[in-house]
Design goal:
single chain; 113 residues; mainly beta; four-stranded antiparallel sheet; three-stranded antiparallel sheet; 9 strands
């Protein structure tokens, strides 16, 4: 975003390095980028995994644990990891491609994309 090319339509104007900057327009652009267009953060889909243990799926951006427990997974890079005592009610930022039935005690697991 080039702040020098934003239209000066509303909001408070301040000077920075001899350039007039409209703070309301800048905040609107930031809001659109982060919230509306989800350029940074924000999940786009959630999928229940209960019936798909030991099945490869597209790489996740996170995993929601509904009931705490252990989670045995295959990571994006192919390594196998056992996470012990993951908290419930949390989206854990894990990039995984498989949840293994052996070693997994957590339940009500959702994949976040």
């Amino acid at each position: 975003m080039d702040i020098n090319n934003l239209p000066l339509t509303s909001g408070r104007q301040v000077k920075e390095n001899s350039n007039i900057i409209n703070t309301a327009d800048i905040l609107e652009e930031i809001y659109k980028a982060l919230i509306v267009e989800k350029n940074v953060g924000g999940s786009k889909a959630v999928k229940a995994i209960n019936a798909s243990l030991d099945t490869t799926f597209p790489t996740t951006s996170g995993v929601y644990i509904g009931t705490s427990g252990n989670l045995s997974v295959t990571m994006k890079d192919g390594s196998e990891v056992a996470f012990v005592s993951l908290a419930s009610g949390v989206i854990h930022p894990l990039s995984i491609t498989k949840i293994k039935s052996v070693g997994t005690t957590a339940s009500n697991v959702l994949l976040v994309y």
